[in-house]
Amino acid sequence: FNAEEFTDPTELRSLAELLGPYGIKLLNETLMWHIQSQVTELRKLVLLNKEILIALRTNFDKPDIMKELFKRLQNVDSVLQRMTIIGVILCFRELIQDALSTQ
Fold it and tell me: Quick check: 49 and 73 in contact, CB under 8 A?
């Protein structure tokens, strides 16, 4: 699977033409729903790590304490993964919008 083949501006213009205005609206709403679900999961992770995050914020000028607090954080990789997913969705949404404006 090569993402460049499917995010080519010509391919995206063709997709926008096939979907039409209502299809693009539905695609946009679906993408935003996926972003919202990722944000909801991020919120759960923040609440899970709330006390540690507060301690990190108050001890940002103490590297030794920061290092120990960071080790106590849970699901750090999941946060990065969810943020990446949100970024990819937003980039795809922007590519679709750009394809629409160049038609």
Answer: yes
